[in-house]
Specification:
The complex is a heterodimer. By secondary structure, chain A is mainly β. Chain A contains one helix and 20 strands. In chain A, a hairpin with a 3-residue loop joins strand 17 and strand 18. The chains are: A mainly beta, B alpha+beta. Chains A and B meet through strand 14, strand 17 and strand 20 of A and strand 5 and strand 6 of B.
């Protein structure tokens, strides 16, 4: 007699499934650990603050006791003060469809997140999808008892054919002096799944699709060729192709250096982007003198503040 | 995090923030410039924002939007409508709709259909 197959609704939450989120474990924080207080900032990679009205928030990435048996895992902890019109969020949006988005249309979704709150009726999960017939679903509120609780939410319908995004958020509806989130899991179907992290290397690779540091401090950044005594052309080839062409930011030209033919440092006094796409960017560092046209050189950080950043937010 | 627009003013200047260091300020319209190609011509696919705080940081935004798609696309549209496009397809005297449609074409070419986020 054949063994009957289980469908999704018969699965237990402890049945391991693939997490659709990037950095659901919150352990990648390439922009630093905070505290973050402004609208549109990212307290952990792919998790973004949305502040509304006059509300304020302060949130940091840190270790929290939200794992199985109160073990320590990465998460975010913060405070929130509700202002007028100010329901706010810490959310991850997944682009659906075009230009490398997720193929999620026509499916329903379920999420689970470990959530902390020390006030009742202030913190809950929100699962949102846009498009014709798109819906918003909420979990029950955290009871506010100063513990980590697993909140779950199931989408009320499937993702519409014209949807462009779904997002999973912790929604803050009232002031709370401490709230947190950790171990976030988003899976297809109508049964939430307990958190199971990816291999850390895989999670980092997902994060690098959206944000990448060439280097920090005095480490090497990119190979280059001098094209005059004062200018070089460097190619920064991203470790992971970006989801779209990224914004490129440098801390300051004086934070960078090129090497002369004797491998001695020449501090940069100018920097510009020539061209770029999802795969790489051509940058043009400049110095006062000391390069030899045609020679190879290398772009390094010069100060502890040196940063060269590519950021692509779909 | 990048130096990104958060508000567009009537005189063409933009208010920006640089989250990394908590800097903010206003950049005059004349200081919102395209990058230059190797031959010295302007590249209509990129605009540079220098931190108004004077810290030396700068962000080069692609027309697709990069780190802040909605605001960056709006910045490119405003630039094309005010100054025309360095490629010559749009003049400063052209109707605003032409500038916007040109930027939308650039966005589609760079990041693909669906990336356009303005209404």
């Amino acid at each position: 007699m054949p063994v009957p197959l289980l469908d999704n609704r018969q699965l237990g939450t402890d049945t391991a499934r693939q997490n659709l989120l990037t950095n659901g474990g919150f352990f990648v924080a390439q922009r630093g650990t905070g505290p973050f207080t402004a609208n549109a900032q990212w307290p952990a990679d792919r998790w973004q603050i949305t502040l509304t009205g006059t509300s304020t928030m302060s949130v940091s990435q840190t270790g929290v006791n939200a794992g199985p048996g109160a073990t320590t895992v990465s998460g975010v902890l913060g405070s929130f003060t509700f202002g007028s019109g100010g329901t706010s969020f810490c959310a991850q949006a997944l682009k659906v469809g075009d230009f490398g988005g997720h193929t999620l249309r026509g499916r329903s979704f379920a999420a689970s997140v470990r959530v902390f709150a020390n006030a009742a009726n202030a913190v809950r999960l929100r699962l949102y999808m846009d498009g014709t017939g798109g819906v918003i679903a909420w979990s029950p509120y955290h009871t506010g008892d100063n513990t980590w609780q697993t909140l779950t939410v199931v989408s009320g319908s499937v993702v519409p054919n014209d949807a462009t995004q779904i997002s999973l958020a912790v929604q803050l509806d009232a002031s709370v002096s401490q709230w947190g989130m950790a171990n976030a899991m988003l899976v297809p179907g109508t049964v939430p799944a307990d958190y199971m992290g990816l291999h850390p290397a895989d999670d980092l690779l997902r994060c690098l699709r959206y944000y990448e540091l060439a280097s920090t401090s005095t480490a090497p950044m990119a190979p280059a060729m001098a094209i005059s005594a004062t200018t070089a052309l460097a190619g920064w080839f991203y470790r992971v192709p970006k989801v779209i062409a990224p914004t490129v930011t440098i801390s300051a030209a004086g934070d960078l250096q090129l090497l002369n033919s004797a491998a001695a440092a020449i501090v940069c006094n100018g920097f510009s982007v020539v061209n770029g796409n999802q795969l790489s960017v051509d940058v043009r560092p400049a110095v006062a003198s000391g390069l030899v046209a045609g020679n190879a050189t290398f772009l390094y950080g010069f100060t502890a503040n040196a940063k060269l950043i590519a950021e692509a937010n779909p | 995090m990048s130096i990104r627009p958060i508000n567009f003013n009537a005189d063409g200047s933009i208010d920006v923030v640089y989250d990394e260091l908590g800097h903010s300020g206003t950049i005059a319209a004349a200081d919102i410039q395209h990058t230059t190609n190797m031959d010295g011509t302007e590249n209509h696919n990129f605009l540079v924002l220098n931190c108004p705080d004077g810290c030396g940081a700068s962000s080069t935004h692609p027309v697709g939007g990069g780190a802040a798609p909605l605001e960056v696309q709006q910045m490119f549209v405003n630039k094309a409508q005010a100054d025309g496009c360095p490629c010559g397809q749009v003049l400063a005297t052209d109707a605003d709709a032409l500038g916007e449609s040109h930027v939308r074409l650039q966005v589609n070419r760079m990041d693909g259909p669906g990336r356009w986020q303005l209404g």
